């Protein structure tokens, strides 16, 4: 506060920040530093992320990719829950499988670079492992994107990964990226 009882610009920006405003300020700068924020829980938002990468708000798909990217920039995971956060509020959302979808991969000799449905890129490696889980008898492949957030690898990309994989000493299909090995069997 200033001497005249007025808010400073910084105080207004921090105290009055909504999810959309905070995401808007982060536009073009990548994800916000949500790992540093621990605001109070403010309730649930009617927002659901489907396994096919669609974000559904109040029953309708969010049609603007820019809005999805903005919300994704303030997405945070705490244990098995997902939240949209700003420095001053935290709203719970539902994620059916993984919050992102890996829709493509550039597969090099020792680097696999994924592109997600929101335009982020991530290189598989020790900090961003590839894993395969078995669900209902089918493989579900994932790559870690950031801070506990994963991307489900779409079918066409997984098939390309399987084609590029080589057998390890135990005969399991294995990929290498950034010096790490990833078995494509769950």
Mean pLDDT: 87
By CATH, the architecture of the largest domain is named Roll
Question: What's the number of structural domains?
Answer: 2
What is the CATH topology assignment of the largest domain? Answer: duf1285 like fold
Content-based structural category: alpha+beta
Query: What proportion of the residues is helical, as a percent range?
Result: 10-25%
Supply Rg: 19 Å
Question: How many strands appear in the DSSP assignment?
Answer: 15
Task: Please trace the helix and strand order, writing H or E for each element.
Answer: HHEEEHEEEEEEEEEHEEE
Strand order in space, largest sheet: 3-2-1-6-5-4
Domain DUF1285: 32-98, 99-184
Protein name: Proteophosphoglycan
Pfam family, one: DUF1285_N
